[in-house]
Amino acid sequence: MDLDGKVAVVTGGASGIGRAIATALAIRGATIAIADVDQSLAMETSQALEAEDYVTGIFMCDVSDKAQVERLFNGVVTTYGHVDILVNNAGKGHNSKVIDLTEQEWDAVLAVNLKGAFLCSQAAAKKMMEQGKGGRIINITSTAGENARVNSAAYSASKAGLIQFTRTLAMELGADGITVNAVGPGLTLHESPIWTPPSKAYQKAFIEQTPIGRTGTPQDVAQAVTFLASDEAAYITGQTIFVDGGYSSGKFSVRD
Ligand SMILES: NC(=O)c1ccc[n+]([C@@H]2O[C@H](COP(=O)([O-])OP(=O)(O)OC[C@H]3O[C@@H](n4cnc5c(N)ncnc54)[C@H](O)[C@@H]3O)[C@@H](O)[C@H]2O)c1
Fold this sequence. Notes:
With about 260 residues, the chain is an alpha/beta fold. The chain has one domain (about 5-240): 3-Layer(aba) Sandwich (Rossmann fold), CATH 3.40.50.720. It has helices at about 15-25, 40-50, 65-80, 105-130, 155-175, 200-210, 220-230; strands at about 5-10, 30-35, 55-60, 85-90, 135-140, 180-185, 240-245. The protein has a 7-stranded parallel β-sheet with strand order 3-2-1-4-5-6-7, with helices on both faces. Helix 5 links the parallel strand 5 and strand 6 (about 180-185). Helix 1 crosses helix 7 and helix 3 (about 65-80) packs parallel to helix 4. The protein starts with 6 loop residues before the first strand and ends in a 13-residue tail after the last strand.
């Protein structure tokens, strides 16, 4: 899984799972463009990577804003010469029942999770097609894209939409050698200061319903993304890999 010479854009790469993805791709040799709205976390991540001699740049970008997304990809190509890998990782959740969900909350979640992935994929695909050397687009969805969950209607709808967007885009870009896949984490705990972990009761329920018997780590997710970004995954497209310890495989499991 050698990514030497490749340029990867990781949206939401400043923290949490995105930071682990940026790190894993950098370890395999890719140059990393961190695209995020949080400047201080982006600086922290970039400095940590540069301390290990990896090449990174920060591109401030709200993925739901078309002008900012175009500036991002023009900036990446101007700075590094090309773009080979896009990871649509930037995401936003909410915790409210449909009956209480505001129109603003619905729009904000869909704008980042679904429209953001569309805008970034479109801009990246145009560059990749011009370059004529194929490419990789990897969308970070969620088990919530397949399994309904209370208090998460907008989030679940956005992630289900992202799975179908992945399949459609894979069909449209296959002839250009651009693969499009999704990775769906289960509950993945991390230390990001802007992310609130779910309650202990929620964590316990997830573990009990997960065959592997633990929550995920950001590195679990990052390894799947790294594989899909590599030349070794050239014949895989339109797929969603759930990195969830088997949670999405069934409704009920007895482990003894
Ligand atoms: N943590 C989990 O348990 C879990 C489970 C399933 C899926 N996911 C998905 O993984 C991805 C990363 O989640 P995380 O847990 O690391 O969350 P996080 O909140 O720690 O990270 C999200 C990152 O996205 C950035 N971001 C938010 N809005 C943005 C925007 N408009 N433009 C650009 N960047 C923006 C944030 O600044 C942050 O750096 C998300 O897509 C999330 O839905 C997470």
